[in-house]
Amino acid sequence: MATDLLTPPTTEPYLARATRILSGGVRPDDVLPVTPEVAYAVDTFVNFLRTEFQTEADEKRKAEYRSRMLISFHHPGVWIAYLETQYGPVVLAVGEGQVGEFVRTIPYEVCKDAIYTIPENWYVD
After folding, report:
1. Does 57 fall in a domain?
2. How many Cβ atoms from other residues are within 10 Å of residue 26's Cβ?
3. What contacts 28, CB < 8 A, 6 or more positions away?
4. 54, 55, 57, 86: most buried by Cβ count inside 10 Å?
């Protein structure tokens, strides 16, 4: 008997949201917002590369820096599962409990592109 891999496996709101996102239903409000702190950090890092190493970061590289800094700014020091999209990072689960349940519940075929990490806390106010 075949099962629908994209049917939310539970009523947990974050799993239903993750399932929607993984099935291609990414909305603009799903993407982590670029805060002024992150924009400043990316600009500072790019300027550092330019002055110290005479290297220019192309748009793809800037987007990678922005993505890493976004997940670190919004979720420092906790397990997260996220998906890198053309619009930026989209978080699917936060915290050891949610990430564990996400991995146990969502079929591999659906979540194989998810990234699992504990972002460092680079931001100090």
Report:
1. yes
2. 17
3. 87
4. 57
